[in-house]
Each structure stands twice: as structure tokens, then as C-alpha cells.
Amino acid sequence: METPNEKTTRPAWTATADLHSPADDAAEARHPLAGKPWMYRSRRIGPIYIPAYASPPFQLGLVAVVCFLCPGMFNALAGLGGGGQFDATTANNANVALYSTFSVVGFFAGTFANRMGIKLTLSLGGIGYFIYIASFLSYNRNQNGGFPIFAGALLGVCAGLLWCAQGAIMMSYPPEASKGRYISWFWMIFNFGAVLGSLIPLGQNMHSDAGGVNDGTYIGFMVLTFCGAALAWFLVDARQVQRADGSHVVLMKHPTWQSELLGLLETLKTDSWVVLLFPMFLASNWFYTYQFNDVNLARFNVRTRALNGVLYWLSQIVGAYIFGYALDISRVRRSMRARAAWVVLFVITMAIWGGGYAWQRQYTRAETSAEDYVKMDWTGGGYVGPMFLYMFYGFYDAAWQTCVYWFMGALTNNGRKLANFAGFYKGIQSAGAAIMFRVDALGAPFMNEFASCWGLLAGSLLIALPLIIMKVRDTVPLEDDIKFSDETIEEVMPTLAHENQESKIN
Prior knowledge:
The protein is mainly alpha-helical. The protein has helices spanning 22-30, 56-69, 71-79, 89-116, 118-125, 127-142, 146-172, 179-204, 215-231, 257-270, 278-283, 286-299, 302-326, 334-360, 365-369, 384-411, 415-441, 446-470, 478-481, 489-492, 502-505; strands at residues 43-45, 48-50.
């Protein structure tokens, strides 16, 4: 991600002798590296610079590829509406089971991540995606609706673990000045998986106007998700990660199940203001059901849905890039950036969902459910308008998720506490998704579902405003971060003499 040309600008992960000094030797004596020496050596292959294996950029990139292959393929399948089936009932029931277990496990997943470690937690989390997609391949052949429901419930457990570990890495590994960019890097790589995943059904169904995808689509997704689950084992433990300035992630050295369960409660006690973000957490996946099932599935045939999926996830990449880098503009104080982000989110909520209201007025569930209803194809008239609307929906999702992660990361740098924040986020987010999938399965009017999405998004922004104004500081002192850990300042503070800060090279 970086291509420094001079020795003085290389990150301190480099093991080159000309960057080492007696001061560094003394620093390493105070805080010896937890991993093997090769993990902290960066590489250059021609003009390409590769960060050290145990550095935050490399580890975040690895996690992003895991999510590219696992949740990315899940998102591509979900984006087709109805899990790629002609009728959304089975997928809705599976997703109710998925997000119900996800909401419970996710809320407490910070305890598991802090006790078992990030690597094991993420590794276990990838398994469920393979089984979930396999259940739809089975359903395509035998119409057994029980398997997708079971697989959905299992995936909820696995996804709760995976996303908690991912959130902890994304928010706690980078330095304060780079959190927005790290979030955007992850979100872009992750959503590129959904783009490629959407290209699979687009290519296989290019000349089909059927309602559901074929077996080859599911098999392709299964291969990719299996690779993602295996790749997670190549991560290093969080205690082995070292930043460019020699600092380490603030963790518990000796976590126990008791300490982490109590730590979950302590997080709510010491950071009670975080509950003002809970409505934003709830809203963050609430609108997926409406967009995927009530817009994409309801109005478009399978190949057009696949094209819409490609454009939706591409727009997410653009949104993550713009918002992630804007949130790290160093010329503006972080507290002011937080307030500006809130204003921009509120404006685009009114603009994009206002356009969505105009679109939703054109059709109802009863009309699109009729047997003689002809779904829209990209070759038909009137496709350009809804195409751009769907792209803006994708852009908006990335903007929302990027800002929520950044708001949480701005409250603390403590890895233990951020794992709990990530668990709260994914648990509450999944509860909202479960509710909406159930509402959709019961056949609620499309306009009612749309109104709930728009109202919750706008209302949650208003509720979060006091926290953004009063609790997002320009920096969080190390003394505050260390209070929620059994480590000392000397064990996690910057130790390298060279001033090769990531904020100068990213």
C-alpha cells in the first residue's frame, strides 16, 4: 500500500541495518518482539513495497481477503435477492435464523475474541459461509427448506465471531491518524469480493431471463468461501502485531472467561455513551432486506439483478474510498471531522432516500407478486433511473458503515474494548436484519418497509449527535486506553527511535 523511495521514509518494520540504532536496541530490550524476527521484516519486489507480515497493513489486508472470500460471496448471493432463488420465502426464513443467532452471539462475541484471540475467532467464523451456500445448492435440487434454515442459524454463530474479530482488527490495529484509511482499505477489498461474486451469476445467466440462478453459481461461491475460511489460519495473534512506531495493541495479557465476561459489562459501564450509537447499529443492516428483496428481486429478472449487484458493490468501493480518506484529513481536527461526517450523512440520507421514495411509489407487492408480472430487463426502457438509484444505495451503505466504524474507533484505541464495541455493533445490527427479514417474509407492504428504513436512518443520526459532539476527542491519551487492560504503558508505548510514522507514509 506504500511505496517509499528513500530509507528515511520506510516504516520501522524494516529490518535493514541502516534503520537500526542503539536507541532501538534499548527499546527492544524493554519490549521484546512477541513473534519471530521474519514477521517484522518488510520486503520490496521491484517497485512494489510489501509491509512486514506482523504489521497492521499486512494483517488488515489478510483479513480483508478473508472477508472478500467469505462474507463477500454471501453478500453477492444476498444481493441477488432471495438467495438466488425465484421466491424469497426460503431465503427469508434462513436469514431470520441467521440474524437471530447472529444478534445474540455477536453481542457477546467480544468476550470470545478477547479470550480465544483474534486469529482463532476469525478462523472459526469463516466455516459457516461455506455451509450456508451449500444449503442453497441442496435446496436447488431437493427443495428441502430445513437445511437452509439450519445453515442460517449456524452461520449466525460463525459470522458473529468473524465480524467481531474483523472489527477489532480494523479499529485497534491502526494508529489514530490512519483509522479512516484502514477502514476504507478493508471495505474496498471486502466489497470487491462481492463485485466478483456478482460477476459469477451475471456471466452464467447472461442469456437467461429465469428467476433463479443455476447450480454452477452456488458451486463457484462454495469454492471461494472454503478458500477464505482456510486463509484465516495465516493471521498472527494480536499480541504479535507491531505498528510502525514500535507500539503494540492494548490487550489483556492473561484473559480468562470471567475477566472477559466482566469486561463486557465494564465496557457498558465505563463507556455508557456508546448506547447512543445503538440505533445507528440497528439501522446499518435494516435496509438490506428492502433493497435486495423489495427492489432488486421484486422488479428485475435474474441477469439484471446480477448486473445491479455488480454496480451496487462497486458503488460501495467508491463510497468507502471517499469517506475513509476524508475522515483522515489531518488539516482538520478529529472532533470537527466527526461533526462534518454527521452533517454529510444526514444530507445524503434525505437526498438518496428521497429519490427512493419517488421510485417506491411506482409499484406495490401485490403487483410484483402477480403470476403474469414481467420483470424489468436492462434492455428495456426506463432502466437507467433505477440503476443509478441502486448504485446510490450501495454508496450510501459504505458511507454509513465507514462512519460508524470510525466513530467507534475515535472513542478508544484499546483492542479489548473495541472488540466489545464491534460485538455490540454486529449483534444489534443483526437483530435489525432479523426483524426486517421476518417482516418481509410476512408480506408487509413495500412502502411500509421503505418508510421504516428511512425513518430509522434519520432518527438514529439525531440520537447519535450528542455523542459525536461531546465524546469524540482529537486524540485519546494512552493513559486512558491502558485503564481497561492489565498491560503497562511501557509494554505498549512507541519504542522505536526513528520517526517513521504511518501517518507520513500512508
